Amino acid sequence: MNKIIKIAVDAMGGDGSPKKVVDGIIHHFMDNKNSFYQIFGDKDKIIPHINSNLLNSSFEVIHTKDIVKGTDSPLEGAKRGKNTSMWLAIQNVKEKKSDVVISAGNTGALLVISKLNLKMIENIDKPALSALWPNKKGMSVVLDLGANIECSPKNLIDFSIMGSSLFKSLYPEDNAKVALLNIGSEEFKGNEVIKETYQQLNIRDNHDFEFKGYIEGNQLMNGDVNVIVADGFTGNVALKTAEGTANFITGELKKTMTGNLIGKISSLLNISSLKKFKAKFDPRLYNGAIFIGLDSPVIKSHGGTDYIGFSNSLSVCSRIVSGNLIEKIRNNIN
User: Fold this and answer.
1) pLDDT 10s digit of each residue in the chain, 334 long?
2) 59, 103, 214, 273: most buried by Cβ count inside 10 Å?
């Protein structure tokens, strides 16, 4: 029998919550019967959305009316107190009553409250925000995406270890291949921090991953590497650029295919190819950023996603718990 995976869920964060969150839980449970959901939020708003597809033995609702608002600054969110749905969910994983915590709420507040409640994994100085990106050959883990604007060589080496551990937790059959995001592929390019990181990774005994050197922004989707490491400033700019480009391409394609009679006929003739293209760039498939480096996993679902996207972020929760992410990082960090 599979181990029961206990997920602490902040049900009140993000657009369309709590209905979206509950619908996502029900959708996730259909293929993950070994899950138990501890749902934090307003019971009167949550219970009406629960149906018979979610077994009574598979969830518990912990009532609170207090919430962190999407408009709060990180500090304001933390100051709302220890009875918000977000704080209680994080406290639940801190007390080891659950294995992982997830929220679609305020990102800044989630990071601050997580750092206030959870300890760092020993020998890691800074946590990082990581996410999954599609590439030609599968998926890549990318970090840091904004938690740390400035990083030292040690931080970037830690991110390499944490990112490769995350990749192996999600894709245990594949080898982790790490590269540093830089402005060129030559050794002499980049700032002093990234050059020093390159030198240290080059001579380090990286038994948990293969170091592939530098990667440029136009190579992110090639699939030659699957763990991409950057400081939070660079990583966040890369993320927003990639998201914007994907939205532009899909938007322009939709206009072309629906703008006139020839476009509509062409789209009908190519319906199968268009569906594959749309699926490849569907952001719901890659929903679920991971706040990594703390001694319990914290997952951030996109606030604007729908229940399918939230369900996919719950799948990330299940996979990293099953893949023993925290234990992998502890074993690999020096």
Assistant:
1) 578 999 999 999 999 999 999 999 999 999 999 999 999 999 999 999 999 999 999 999 999 999 999 999 999 999 998 999 999 999 999 999 999 999 999 999 999 999 999 999 999 999 999 988 888 888 899 999 988 899 999 999 999 999 999 999 999 999 999 999 999 888 778 889 999 999 999 998 877 899 999 999 888 888 899 999 999 999 888 887 877 777 776 677 667 666 665 555 555 546 565 566 556 666 677 677 899 999 999 999 988 889 999 999 999 999 999 999 999 999 888 6
2) 103
Neighbours of 32 (CB within 10 A): 20
Contact 13, 68 (CB under 8 A): yes
Please give the model's pTM, rounded to 2 decimal places: 0.86
Run of H or E residues at 132: strand 128-135
**H-type helices in the chain, by residue range?**
19-29, 43-46, 74-79, 85-94, 107-117, 153-170, 192-203, 232-258, 261-269, 271-280, 307-322, 325-332
- Write down all domains in the chain, each with its CATH number in brackets: 1-121+293-325 (3.40.718.10), 125-291 (3.40.718.10)
Bond preceding residue 282 cis, omega within 30 of 0: no
Q: Is residue 125 within 8 Å of 115, Cβ to Cβ?
A: no
**Which residue shows structure tokens 């629960």?**
50
Distance CA 270, CA 252 (A): 16
Rounded to an integer, what distance in angstroms lies between the CA atom of residue 266 and that of residue 99?
49
Rounded CA separation 268/49 (Å): 37
How many CB atoms are located within 10 Å of the residue 295 CB? 15
Q: Is the dihedral of CA 54, 57, 62, 63 positive or negative?
A: positive
